[in-house]
Amino acid sequence: MAESPILVQRPGEACGVFGVFAPGEETARLTYFGLYALQHRGQESAGIAVADGETVTVFKDLGLVAQVFDEPTLATLEGGVAIGHTRYSTTGSSVWANSQPVYRQVGDNGIALAHNGNLTNTARLAADIGRLFATSDSDLMTEAIATAMADGCDLERAVVDTITGFEGAFSLAIMDRSTLVALRDPHGFRPLCLGRLREGWVIASETAALDIIGASFVRQVEPGEVLVIDGSGVRSRWPFAEVERRLCLFEFVYFARPDSSLEGRNVHAARRQMGYRLAEQAPVAADIVVPVPESGIPAAQGFAARSGIPYADALVKNRYVGRTFIQPTQSMRDQGIRMKLNPIPEVLAGRRIVMVDDSIVRGSTTRQLVRMVRHAGAAEIHLRISSPPYRWPCHYGMDTGDRDTLLAADRTVEEIREFLEVDSLGYLELDALIGATGVDGFCTACLSGDYPTDVGTAGDKYVLERT
Ligand code: AMP
Q1: N or C: which end of the chain has fewer CB within 10 A?
Q2: Which of 90, 118, 359 to mutate for ligand 1's pocket (most ligand atoms within 8 Å of CB)?
């Protein structure tokens, strides 16, 4: 009987990728700052690969960008080409082996790869390339490209020849000792953009990462486009058959920074418009509109503007709470959400509150939050969510968990309202959400169950067995 692949870790997640081609510049340092701007896309691990024309060097570790890199480390990372990665995972295990960029030696050259997304044909791919033990999608992709290079292709050719075998979501930054390649899968699930430095080029998951290093925005990398950047400039290759564009709608709802633009549309403006439409769709009599910071702020502003109900900050977020490796004590853990958010009773007491957030995934945070706001004296809590119920697992990199962990998976809105113990609950409808972005051509799988690619075997990668 044929052996099926054994894949031992949960694969790629929504992450941040960054790359620089700028001979003569401190590319690793620029990448560090680019990753810093992309920290919200991944807090599990951070890494940078750099090449000086001869050697590719990778430095990566678990932790936040500022925990992983210090001045002496950056000083050792010299060269004119660099890529970087921040890895995100809500449910996957944090192990060093899963941190990126992934590296392979190929003869006297080397390649490094940074991946944002998640493949949906991993099992088949692993069998095809005869690799039975892989730690992640990114590992498999690197292996496939390295194998093609070992057969005598240059990086550009190796990528173009192998990439059409991958299915699912992949925005990639790949490099060897002298070339940077950036590409998006043909649906364009995850964003990626191109920027210009005075003497060089930058690619980044989000436009906000260009701003921080003083690069100017040139354009987005198009779905299905392979950009090759080397000493002779930038050129495009189009190896994929054309398919429908399906940018992840959740990038607009939650994931991307508000100061980034996607498809030419500023994310903050889109979120504000979502709140505006939410107020039209699910109006309620109340005294104040309170955002759940940070994610609910623009939508709450839009809701307040449209409804005429005053906006009020009543939940204070500790800006310095991120992912940390120091575990809180048990008694602190019982306080749960207070590590992150603390209410201002003076604002809430006796008032009818419209509480606005962008999404509910598992519902555990939201329920704690509602109890806390009630305890702080709110007279009524009307929860308004600026996206539809999150009912389906994402197979394209959001990694929000399996279906049975999603609060809305098999509950009606009324059942969700009861579970969350709120006086009323309103979600923004899908059409209104898409309308608020001003763009179309989205993947809405998590909200609609409409998966743009075959995900029939997407779960195989989690199965640890040999048949
Ligand atoms: P919960 O009630 O536990 O589902 O948490 C809801 C909160 O999680 C909202 O404030 C969302 O902004 C936030 N959220 C949405 N999507 C994600 C995600 N992919 N990872 C982490 N948090 C998320």
Answers
A1: N
A2: 359
Global confidence as pTM: 0.92
Cα distance between residue 202 and residue 200, in whole Å:
7
> Residue 208 corresponds to which tokens in the numbers above?
């906000």
Domain 16-246 top-level CATH class: alpha beta
- Lookup: tokens for 44: 């599990």
User: Which atom of ligand 1 is closest in space to residue 14's alpha carbon?
Assistant: 19
| Alpha carbon distances (Å) from 140 to 51, 130, 143 | 22, 10, 5
Q: Whose CA is nearest to atom 23 of ligand 1?
A: 361
Ligand 1 in reach of 291 Cβ (< 6 A): no
| Contact call for residues 170 and 240 (beta carbons, < 8 A) | no
- Give one word for 460, left, alpha or beta, with left for phi > 0 and alpha for psi -120 to 50: alpha
Using alpha carbons only, how large is the chain's radius of gyration in Å? 23
pLDDT in tens, the chain (467 residues): 333 333 333 444 579 999 999 999 999 999 999 999 999 999 889 999 999 999 999 999 999 999 999 999 999 999 999 999 999 864 445 677 789 999 999 999 999 999 999 998 887 777 777 665 566 888 899 999 999 999 999 999 999 999 999 999 999 999 999 999 999 999 999 999 999 999 999 999 999 999 999 999 999 999 999 999 999 999 999 999 999 999 999 999 999 999 999 999 999 999 999 999 999 999 999 999 999 998 999 999 999 999 999 999 999 998 777 655 555 676 666 566 777 899 999 999 999 999 999 999 999 899 999 999 999 999 999 999 999 999 999 999 887 778 999 999 999 999 999 999 999 999 999 999 999 999 999 999 999 999 999 886 554 443 322 22
Residue nearest to atom 22 of ligand 1 (CA): 361
Relative to the CA of 361, which ligand 1 atom is closest?
Answer: 4
266-447: which CATH topology? Answer: Rossmann fold (3.40.50)
Annotated domain spans of the chain: 16-246, 266-447
Which protein residue has the closest C-alpha to ligand 1 atom 2?
Answer: 363
Active-site positions?
15
Angle at 24 between CA 56 and CA 218, to 5 degrees: 90
What is the whole-number distance in angstroms between the Cα of residue 383 and the centre of ligand 1?
15
Residue in 41, 250, 267, 295 to alter for ligand 1 test, most ligand atoms within 8 A of Cβ: 295
**Which of 39, 44, 365 to mutate for ligand 1's pocket (most ligand atoms within 8 Å of CB)?**
365
Residue 430 and residue 101: Cα distance in Å, rounded? 36
Task: Evaluate: CB of 136 within 6 angstroms of ligand 1.
Answer: no
